[in-house]
Specification:
This protein is an alpha/beta fold. It has two domains: 84-204, Immunoglobulin-like (Sandwich), CATH 2.60.40; 223-487, no CATH class. 25% of the residues lie in helices and 24% in strands. It has ten helices and 20 strands. It has helices at 7-50, 67-76, 237-249, 264-270, 275-278, 293-313, 343-350, 451-456, 469-473, 476-482, and strands spanning 89-92, 95-104, 118-126, 133-139, 146-154, 162-170, 178-185, 197-204, 223-228, 254-258, 281-285, 325-330, 333-337, 358-361, 363-367, 388-390, 399-403, 420-423, 428-434, 459-461. It has a seven-stranded mixed barrel. Helix 1 packs across helix 2. 33% of the residues are buried. Residues 42-81, 213-218 and 491-499 have low confidence and may be disordered.
Length: 499
């Protein structure tokens, strides 16, 4: 006689079978996800540490920048990466590393034991928190890092509770060529492998003196400009071109741009210009600031200036086409001579012996919401038509021209005020062109002072910029831009046909 199956027992067995199948599928899915996750993280770590050859410049990395965005930008970009870009990376809640530099001189193989494993990293951190970290040095062709000795020094005054630091990591033995450095909390429960890695850039511990010719200091001045965003980090295409062309007219042939708001299209079109016409070199770096930009502007400015000096210091002085002076400026600032026609002539007259390490240039505020000067030609750019500077309550920062030729060894970079002079305004001034607004009043539309208010403010005439108007509009690069045709050309078209 067959035994009867109870319906409740049969259903429970089916439920158990379904649960077993669901658990099995879940475990398999989890293992697949875990495997893909670690593959992706490994790829991103390699990209962040070693970079990817033959890829484009990174110009689109804004405040929300992360490693995934970096890999996507690198994959889709077409410009060549010539140098390791500086990137803010979180060490902990209070400190962010920027860029790291290996103290070297010429080839690594010629280094002395003193400088073989000394790495300095630019860091922005809270002024109220004392750094307490450990560091690892990653060596070439070695998969595991070596623990280094961590020290630090403060290289700026506190600004809104932020300070600029130099984190120093060193090894006492020469056991291989350093390729990267990482910092992590001084806690043995923290896995140091998970710390972000900064790829190191070699810089000179000392520079060769530039040989003088029989004619004193001929072609000895090669100024370079490092460009940072305005406090409102947006720049129009007009302002971008006007800044580059004007300062190129002033004798600047090297530009390093730290900005994430320059579109890739502008950069690509700029590359259509033949090099024998531009005769300049432009390097783009992202600026993925992890702070509220307006509140941290000054400390970010200081970090960029230090990165700029490190990068230009790595070249030997006997290479005549390398920078002798470095200047950090924003897009709305213009170095405008009064008597001379270029920066070389100014520095040759003002500092003929090349002994001054820092030349301070005073700023003048030109409001874009003032009337245009009647003497300015219709075709002139807007900055040429504003000829009155205003004495408003806004505090303007000076521009500093740093003389790299006075820095004979690496430590001189941290002593910029050892010799300093202020250039008189009747020789050179910094014109800052911005919309003037009442900082205490909020305007939803962003409106500035009206014309009636502008007439009340104290202002003075300064027409030094006007004398460069004709030279600018007749400049070949500027004519290519204003023709509008360069934005319709493809890389295969002949840009020279537009001249």
């Amino acid at each position: 006689m067959k035994s009867a199956h109870k319906p409740g027992v049969t259903m429970r067995k089916y439920y158990q079978l379904i649960l077993v199948i669901v658990c099995f599928v879940s475990i398999v899915t989890l293992l697949i996800y875990r495997h893909e996750y670690y593959r992706l993280r490994y790829v991103l770590e390699v990209l962040n540490f070693f970079g990817k050859p033959g890829l484009s410049e990174i110009e689109f990395c804004g405040p929300g920048f992360n490693a995934t965005m970096l890999s996507e930008i690198l994959r889709n970009s077409s410009m060549e990466v010539r140098e390791t870009p500086p990137l803010f990376q979180e060490i902990d809640d209070s400190f962010y590393s920027y860029s790291s530099f290996l103290q070297s001189y010429q080839k690594y193989e010629k280094l002395t034991q003193t400088h073989a494993h000394n790495i300095d990293t630019i860091v922005i951190g809270k002024a109220s928190v004392r750094p307490n970290f450990r560091c690892n040095i990653w060596l070439e062709n070695v998969s595991k890092p070596k623990a280094g000795r961590f020290t630090f020094k403060i290289v700026s005054e506190p600004i809104n509770d932020f300070c600029l630091y130099i984190f120093h990591c060193s090894l006492s033995k020469n056991i291989g060529k350093p390729k990267g450095v990482s910092f992590y909390m001084n806690n043995y429960n923290i896995n140091p492998i998970h710390a972000p890695i900064n790829r190191v850039i070699e810089v000179n511990t000392k520079r060769k003196p530039r040989e003088r010719s029989s004619i004193r200091f001929v072609n000895n001045i090669e100024p370079a400009i490092c460009v940072i965003p305005n406090k409102v980090p947006l720049v129009s295409r007009d302002s971008f071109i006007e800044f580059l062309v004007f300062h190129h007219m002033m004798g600047v042939n090297s530009f390093t741009i730290y900005d994430s708001m320059i579109s890739e299209d502008i950069i690509r079109r700029l590359n259509l210009l033949p090099s024998d016409i531009t005769q300049w070199t432009i390097q783009f770096f992202p600026l993925n600031y992890p702070f509220v930009f307006a509140k941290s502007y000054e400390i970010v400015h200081n970090a960029i200036e230090l990165d700029c000096l490190f990068r230009h210091f790595k070249f030997d002085k006997d290479e005549s086409n390398k920078a002798s002076h470095a200047i950090v400026m924003s897009w709305d600032e213009f170095l405008v001579p009064r008597v001379h026609t270029n920066m070389k002539a100014i520095l040759d007259d003002f500092d003929p012996t090349r002994k001054t390490r820092t030349v301070e240039v005073k700023p003048l505020l030109f409001c874009l919401n003032q009337y245009d000067d009647d003497n300015a030609e219709i075709g002139y750019p807007t900055v040429m038509k504003k000829t009155h500077y205003y004495m408003l309550s806004e505090e303007l920062k000076s521009i500093y021209i740093r003389n790299l030729d006075t820095m004979t060894n690496y430590d001189d970079i941290f002593d910029l005020d050892s010799s300093s002079k202020i250039v008189p305004l009747d020789i050179l001034g910094v014109h800052k062109y911005t919309e003037c607004r009442d900082p205490k009043a909020y305007h939803p539309s962003g409106a500035g002072y009206n014309e009636t208010q502008m007439q009340v403010f104290q202002h003075k005439f300064e027409g030094a910029m006007l004398k460069f108007g004709q030279s600018l509009v007749s400049n070949k690069i500027y004519r290519l831009y204003t023709s509008g045709q360069i934005w319709e050309k493809t890389p295969s078209d002949n840009v020279r046909d537009m001249l």
